[in-house]
Amino acid sequence: MRSVKSLATAAEAGRHQREWFADLRRRVAAGEPFALLNADVPHEIFRTMDIPYAVSQWWASLVAAKQRSQHYLELVRQRGYPDYSEQYNSVTLGSAFDPEPEAGPWGGLPKPDIVVGDVTGDITRKIFDIRGHEPGVTFYPLESAAENEVPVNWWELMPHRWEQAIGPARLDLLTAELENLVRFLETTTGRRFSESRFREVMALVDEQEEWNRKTRDLIARTRPAPLGVVDSIPSVMLPQWHRGTEWARDIAKRFYEEVRDRVETGQAACPGERARLMWIGRGLWYDMGFYQRFQDEYGAVFVWSMYLAIAADGYIRYGDDPMRALAARFAAFGDQLYTPPWSSEWYVKEARLHGIDGVVHLVSDDPRGSYFTARALEAAGFPVIEIHADNVDARTFGDEVVKRVGQWLENVVLA
Questions:
Q1: Which residues 6+ apart lie within 8 Å of 408 measured at CB?
Q2: Is it the case that residue 12 has pLDDT exceeding 70?
Q3: What family does the Swiss-Prot or TrEMBL record give for this protein (predicted)?
């Protein structure tokens, strides 16, 4: 029972990412402005203005995959900052302290001129504040608003009725902030913001995510699963960092076609599939083989991760006002993944859609409603096991985790 690990789209995405990063380093070395963005920041503005950018969490995932997290966390600790909190962003912060940055993965992350982050919590804000204190670096924060009224089945409302789902007050605030961000970028970089180009970028993102939605639905209804999360994550997440480009739109389409072909020819990640598992939390970047172990030993396939699912339900926004639609894409993004009942109801919906038999829940240092997520799934009849670890800090993850999950599979899920 072996993993697919042969998707052409995953291989192409990996090649493209390396080529893109090499080109980014060349552009920055030639004097172009460079922005470092948090994952929940509207990248579409930077795409429209052709400002080179990288994503903090993507860089941390690459560092973790190259087993370099401890080096950067040690640099954070040497500066007197905690190395055990919000490691997903702290790892990237550590790269700013490296006396030999070119020794980092793929030649190292260039020093940014602009850092943009949404202030979803005190820790995240402080990490980006530190970046803003570096000479020549400007930190541009975006506020994170909340709403007392939570829509029922928000995933059904978001594509067209996002104003109803999110509420006008939150949209007013973020729309104004994004307009101010555009003015700031025009002033500091000399680049111009084109409304027509912006509409093209927004349309390409919607097309890309429509293909991801078709892929998500196809995997959900296929027994046995045509592929597991080890194979789906790179095919969906690497293109997500390039959304708003024709390449990202086209590879999302090819990803769907590749999965469809596997379904039509009867190919499966695990032909002897005995259980379908859900992985809630960020990818375990330093040990992606974790997911494969249980497929090989127990016939338990991780068919679900948040990456393809949120691409399907969390990004599509249609409307005549592209800036307000972009605000709608991100005003409640954190809620969709982490804030109950937004998140907990969505996870239950996804578990039912995919025919999940058991849920493995990664609870990091910043759990953001993890207790309510687990309780909602259990109340809906889905057995849950919680893993308390960090997805880029291997110190928090030991062999006993694998043993615990195996025992849970034997005694609860497969029993």
A1: 358, 383, 385
A2: yes
A3: Belongs to the FldB/FldC dehydratase alpha/beta subunit family.
